[in-house]
Amino acid sequence: MTRISLSATMQLISLVLAFILPVSSFTNVLTLPQLRLSQRIQQHSNTPQSSRSITTVLPSTTQDLTQTTLSDTTPNPLILHTPLPPQSFAGAVERAITNRFGASPAARILQSWRLLDAGYEHVQHIQPTGASSKNCYQHASSYVPSLSVKKYWENEELEWTSKLESHYPAIKREFMAAISDAQSLEEQGNNVWAGALTNDAAGYGVGWSTLVLYDRGSWDDENTKLFPQTSRAILDCGIPACEVFFASMQPGSSIAPHSDFTNFVLTSHLGLVIPKQGEKRCKLTIGDEEREWQEGEISVFDTSVIHEAVNETDETRYILMMRLWHPDLTEVEREALQFTYDCLEVPELTSDDPGMVFMAEQHIKMLRSVPELLTEDVDVTELIGKKKKKDKKYKKKKKKSGTAGKGFGA
How far is 323 from 19, CA to CA, in rounded Å? Predict the structure, then answer.
């Protein structure tokens, strides 16, 4: 079965968030010819699996945001309430969502899917904190209607944040032990510190890279073995995550203002190594609101709002980064969005043949299974520095990960 990544999947629906990966190229696609959803799916399906990420579906070009002025947009009611052609793949996904979750409970997800197919771009300006309002707006091509938008969410609003912060000492110890032997980490891990996949994404800063633990609802088997305590903490704290990964930012680097184009997925950072903490030289700006990363503290924000980051120090910054379902989504809506990801990865889920659907569901279960390792007590120091014996005949081919251009649910 053909598998489409959650990253491309998320930007094909308007969901994901995550899920992650991170930096996507900012494009004023209101001025570009729009590809129909079916064309974008076909375009993505023709992309080698090793080059896919959640951000690979929509066309993109890098623009100087200081020269871009966008007006607020409102969805066309006709698009919101008109079913897609049943003979198309997009229509088949819509029908499958309706059959599984009901037209009323999944109404906003169905509307999101229709808006995506129509090439809708949501722009909404928000109240600036200070005098400057230049970047105080949301820009989302992956858009679920009527979700609240604000630059930062307070931790008190999200119960899991205090739980994860309590795991910070163990997470940092495990992380520092792992990166202390870069050669072993590279040999044993999967796509360790992967960078941008496209020139557009790289245009926002080349000093940013990731090490993925969880993506598209699937755990990375190799990397979770190297970070079992961190992975277990994510599970134990009940974090509504689409993606989880470590992210590094090189000394003297920056990420230019951009949107991740998805309003139904929030982003969260747990500071691990923050150089020159307290000097405001390593910081993140959402809209016009600037905050410094703090070690051991979680921040949650909306990256469909224009944002940027900078590391003005001479040391590398490290964080644990998570893509999260928006808190306003109902449980049914989250499941419907995840199901849409699944349909894009395993299209047979939309089949009218019950046998084919059953086989597709079994495949999804396999992809979503939690590694047995995460239920065991394992010290990362027992894994790092030791060569893993692998039968070359059955050695799993590593997938490339990183940040690509703008796509669904970036």
Answer: 5
In this structure, the number of other CB atoms found within 10 A of the CB of residue 141 comes to 29
Counting other chains too, the contacts that 348-357 makes at CB distance below 8 Å and 24 or more residues apart are 348/1, 349/96, 350/89, 350/92, 350/93, 350/95, 350/96
d(CA 37, CA 359): 26
* Contact by Cβ (8 Å): 342, 100: no
Helix (H) or strand (E) holding 309: strand 307-311
The 3-state DSSP class for residue 160 equals helix
CA distance linking residue 17 with residue 408, whole number of Å: 9
User: What one-character-per-residue DSSP string does 207-275 give?
Assistant: TEEEEEEEETTEE-HHHHHH-HHHHHHHHHTT--EEEEEEEEE-TTEEEEEE--EESSEEEEEEEEE-T
Q: What is the DSSP string of 39-82?
A: HHHHHHHTS-GGG--TT-SS------GGG---------HHHHHS
What's the average model confidence in pLDDT over 303-310? 95
Which residues on neighbouring strands pair with residue 249, listed in sequence order?
208, 317
- Tens digit of each residue's pLDDT (9 = 90 or more) over 109-162: 999 999 999 999 999 999 887 666 788 999 999 999 999 999 999 999 999 999
- Residue 209, Cα to own-chain centre: how many angstroms? 14
Predicted model pTM: 0.79
What order do you get walking across the sheet with 265-273 strand by strand? Answer: 152-153, 298-301, 265-273, 317-325, 241-249, 208-215, 218-219
Q: How far apart are CA 292 and CA 193, in angstroms?
A: 23
How many whole angstroms separate alpha carbon 189 and alpha carbon 239? Answer: 24
What is the model's pLDDT at position 166?
Answer: 97
- Could you tell me how far CA 228 lies from the centroid of its own chain? 21
Summarize pLDDT for 287-297 with one digit per residue, the tens. Answer: 999 999 999 99
Rounded Cα–Cα distance for residues 352 and 124 (Å): 39
| Residues in a beta bridge with 324 | 241, 266
